[in-house]
Write a structure and sequence with these properties.
By secondary structure, the protein is mostly helical. Helices cover about 35% and strands about 0% of the residues.
Length: about 35
Amino acid sequence: LSRNVVQNIHLGGGSILGVSRGGPCVTQIVDSMQ
């Protein structure tokens, strides 16, 4: 990240990372419970 990118990062909404939580992986949840 450069200074230009992060200089006003607090003024923008959302996430600079562009990640999404998405839905839970039901298969992994069930496997961990077994």
